[in-house]
Amino acid sequence: MGPKNIATLLGWAAVVTASYSNRPDYAGRFTFAAPYDQSFLEGYSILKHIGGLGPYSNRMSYGIGRDPPESCAVDQVIMIRRHGERYPQGSDGEYIEATLKKLYGFDVENWKGDLTFLNWWQYYMDSEGLYGLETESGPYNGLLTTYKHGAEYRVRYGHLWDQSSDKIVPMWTSGFERVVQTARKFGEGFFGWNYTDSVALNIISESEEMGANSLTPECPGDTDTQACDSLSQDLPAFRVAAERFNKQNPGLNLNSTDIFQLMFMSVFELNVRGYSDWTNAFTLDEWKWFGYTQDLQFYYCAGPGDPYYKAVGSVYANASLTLLNQGPAEVGAIYFNFAHDTNITPILAAMGIATPSEDLPLDKIPFPSTYEIGNIMPMGGHLTLERMSCNATVATEKGTFVRVVLNEAVVPFTSCQEGPGFSCSLANYTDMVSKMLPDFASECKINSTVPQHLSFWWDYNTTSAYNHQTAMYIPYQGDTYV
Ligand SMILES: *[C@@H]1O[C@H](CO)[C@@H](O)[C@H](O)[C@H]1NC(C)=O
Ligand SMILES: *[C@@H]1O[C@H](CO)[C@@H](O)[C@H](O)[C@H]1NC(C)=O
Ligand SMILES: *[C@@H]1O[C@H](CO)[C@@H](O)[C@H](O)[C@H]1NC(C)=O
Ligand SMILES: *[C@@H]1O[C@H](CO)[C@@H](O)[C@H](O)[C@H]1NC(C)=O
Ligand SMILES: *[C@@H]1O[C@H](CO)[C@@H](O)[C@H](O)[C@H]1NC(C)=O
Ligand SMILES: *[C@@H]1O[C@H](CO)[C@@H](O)[C@H](O)[C@H]1NC(C)=O
Ligand SMILES: *[C@@H]1O[C@H](CO)[C@@H](O)[C@H](O)[C@H]1NC(C)=O
Q1: What is the pTM of this model?
Q2: Signal sequence: where (predicted)?
């Protein structure tokens, strides 16, 4: 049966399903099309095995409804979002270009086997100036997905924006070019035609001088953990891939490090073109290992495996706790913030979200693993705190509850899930979170001359001057970016 016939058959099955699905009698449920997807393909999706480098995908959920339970309405939302899909950073570009130079330097005239596509493939960077920026082409392009996310959140949280009020809605972004652009695109998506006049984008410098009053706080005393320093790319799986390519292409002599760099490079092609011929050159098991290199990187260098990062993440966790307790009537309902991956993974670590009970092993992949970066912080990854106001049900009391949503999946706390929709009461949440947070200023020994607390959520500017890109410069750690 050709593809066209299969399509016809599937179309016919859909018609049968549609015409019977509204019939009340049980016999009418007879259908050829299975109503529930049996494939669970996302487990095999490349998007889950490329760490935080490639296109966004939702976190695989526990099957808890994303919408608030029937007795509840969200009355305050506090989100921190990573920038959208981007090109490689300039510093990574150097390694990539060196590896491509090595690859083409072997003088293979006619590429064969898994690398046949190299006979026509070309690197996707059209211009040096694009390194580090949001992508702007293809189905996963960062500017587009960010705008779309804003528009989706308008549907979800639009009721929190009082359009009849003259009150300016502040948003906050760290002062890095691609992050600022992300904040603007999201704002355009959420506020639509009213973006320019209704919003005040506050750009918070990434300088260490900001101390705790920052979306990108740092621990000056932190030296890398030993595990972070000893992470290696010379893995057996990558040696196997190198040997396969070398055998298929006489003269070629790639090693495991080259394989890692080529995989790393190819992931960004998805952000730019939406597909990559490289994806199928590697086996799924090789991608599994590649993904694990990224899990280890975050876990030991910017996550729960580095004790300093819990202190770093406590800044945001603690300040958002204050916002939730003050509530929308006192401080407003919408808090949209923008930063980088390694500013959000510490917050998750501080709050114990997705933290495994044991350190990740360096020599093998744990199955199952709670710390998979593809499920935690892809491009566009975001942590959303929902404050919900709920009426009583037969099972739960009237009151204020909190839910943590990571990449659109509800993540309940093991020790606090008695509320509606597996939420935690605000009182219990406050008790639990305040007990687990280390003190940033003392743990990180930050200089007493810099701010010891986050205050920009309470003393923000209401100018719309930064809402759009202009000729002005955005300060970033002494450097200047347009
Ligand atoms: C809670 O009850 C009040 C009073 O009946 C009602 O106005 C409100 O819409 C209810 N809230 C939710 C989320 O159902
Ligand atoms: C949003 O835009 C509409 C149409 O221009 C306008 O009527 C409304 O006042 C605006 N609202 C705000 C909050 O600026
Ligand atoms: C692979 O070759 C590069 C030089 O082209 C070298 O820097 C790297 O250390 C090598 N990797 C291994 C595992 O030998
Ligand atoms: C809050 O904590 C108390 C004491 O542990 C517990 O009895 C109650 O069920 C909790 N409520 C919610 C909504 O989690
Ligand atoms: C948490 O924030 C409050 C005010 O927002 C502050 O008084 C308190 O010291 C902070 N705690 C830590 C551990 O930073
Ligand atoms: C704190 O900052 C001041 C002013 O920048 C500087 O003179 C001093 O050396 C710093 N102290 C420490 C411990 O870094
Ligand atoms: C508000 O603007 C003033 C003056 O430009 C600046 O010093 C301050 O850092 C700004 N605050 C925020 C939260 O952006």
Answers
A1: 0.92
A2: 1-18
